[in-house]
């Protein structure tokens, strides 16, 4: 490792630890690196890289998907999905916990953001589970653990960002993450079934006659068309991710204002401002990350990592294990979006050189980084759920541990068997 590369990385980590926002820490470390190398003619190139990092037609999908999610949240469409999930999953022992996971699967097909899941569903399920006799820590654990399904089931913001940064087909990546995401939901529901039998969790009592189930399905059918539109348009080659995001946002706007009348026109300003703020915060990280990745490219970091891994001669499974450990550690201390922006292109290139399919590696990387949302010190999903439940962090960690364990087991299975993630894209012709 050269002195200039060491200074680049050390300055970045030092600025992060000092509390500087991630985007400014990346840009400041690039400027420090330019000063150390003495290549002052890199200054205009660095600013150009920031602009080029954001100037992408594909990345226009990000604010559109965010807007669609804000419309769904503001339009109170969550209640319809919860009633539908109750009708489908609530008959099982531990029914409300099962419904929590089932609703996360349905809701993730609309927003694709883990924190969006907690913000909307957590306020519904955590108090309801506590009233039914579940401990606050367990209610928060189920909510936090099921929220990481969001970035796996399309549409997924993190898939859009990874695809744009690592030059992987976004449609193919969303198809690749779908089955692993659903499997996580299934294995979490299986764990709840075992716990429900042991702890004698209650069932959800409600009318489950064919008519009642039909009514619940009918009420949920219109909002559930959002992921159908996105998936059909993208996987069928009808729409680009950006166009699919635009159609989804327009659809959510129409059903919230015209059909359900759950959003007043006067409230649209707040919806648009929240979407713009979140999009701006995300895209400035993307732009500064592009400049940081360019600096690491100038230091030949991708080639160094690839050559180092190749020299170890670990083979497919050994290489995948090393990359998983790297991603797990990074995900524990840095949010998934930032890790992908900083290290996605680098690790993807190194994985490809090691013989790992880029699409499979992208799926494993996204799943791996989602696990970091459940682990301190970052653990944003943990802290968000704890804030709603007020249960304390240590009880929440104990209740979350079994869910984290089964999720890690599923990560191992997905990493070891590429067919799980590559089967659906292959069927769809990617």
Automatic annotation (TrEMBL):
The chain crosses the membrane at residues 7-36, 56-74, 105-126, 138-162, 168-194, 215-238, 244-263, 275-294, 314-334, 339-356, 403-424. InterPro entries: DctM (IPR010656), TRAP_DctM (IPR004681). It is found in: Cell inner membrane. The keyword Magnesium does not apply. Pfam families: DctM. Keywords: Cell inner membrane, Cell membrane, Membrane, Transmembrane, Transmembrane helix, Transport. Residues 9-420 form the TRAP C4-dicarboxylate transport system permease DctM subunit domain. It comes from the Bacteria. GO terms for molecular function: transmembrane transporter activity. One of its GO terms (cellular component) is plasma membrane. It is a multi-pass membrane protein. Part of the tripartite ATP-independent periplasmic (TRAP) transport system. Belongs to the TRAP transporter large permease family. The complex comprises the extracytoplasmic solute receptor protein and the two transmembrane proteins. This is TRAP transporter large permease protein. It comes from Hoeflea halophila.
